[in-house]
Design brief:
Helices cover about 40% and strands about 35% of the residues. It is α+β, with helices and mostly antiparallel strands. It has a single domain (about 1-94), classed as Alpha-Beta Plaits (2-Layer Sandwich), CATH 3.30.70.100. The protein has a four-stranded antiparallel beta sheet with strand order 2-3-1-4. A hairpin with a 6-residue loop joins strand 2 and strand 3 (about 50-60). Helix 1 (about 15-25) packs antiparallel against helix 4. The chain is globular and about 35 Å long. The termini are close together.
Amino acid sequence: MLTWNVTYHCKPGQRDAFYKALCDLGVRANSLTEAGNVKYDYFFAAEAPDDLLLVETWTDPAFQDAHCKTELFAKLQALKARYCDSVNIDKFNV
């Protein structure tokens, strides 16, 4: 199992707009249908009003790698460029 904690550091005041854009694009719903996906959930940081946390879990790193090559993932990159200042990723193999 592979879990990624992805922290999106949004531009000031842009977290809600970024989350709405992710929902409108269907990132979570589509990712949950991909082979090997176990979890794909977003969380709002109570102490950091511009941060959005994504916790995604895959049965095998190859499935997560395939996810990163989808058309939807490419569209996500455009949203990140528009709404985020930076992104941190913590990776865990269980």
